[in-house]
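pipeline stage [seq->struct] | target=CTCK domain-containing protein | organism=Pocillopora damicornis | residues=135
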Amino acid sequence: MASNSRLFLIMYLVSLCLLPSLLANPMKAALASVHCERKGYTFPVKVVGCQERMVTVNTCIGTCLSFSTPTGSNYEQVESCTCCEPTKTTTIDVGLWCQDASNPGSFVKVRLSVHVPLVDEAEHKLQNLQVTLEH
């Protein structure tokens, strides 16, 4: 939860510095609805010739904020987008029972590395903050 509060403060300060007009009531309401949580997610690991195995990892789930608004200067537009996503990934080893090619009808345990999100605490990652010129 601390990261959500920190994100709100960062977004608020960025908005305050870049564009005071963004702090109108609609923006405040939109910022208040932004959240990101860590949740368990189960997915199947499938390999041909092996028994399927379900693996549970943590993932980020939430709502995000994006906006595009004029700055008041000639043709300038401020655009921002936040995304609820993990800040790191990792590789985990998954053991699968696979058919033994040298002994039909029997299985051997095979270790497979799977790339997954590493989510100790879900947090929003501010992306694509930019000022663009439109003609």
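stage status: PASS
auto-comment: DSSP finds two helices and seven strands in the chain. Residues 82 and 124 are 6 Å apart (CA to CA).
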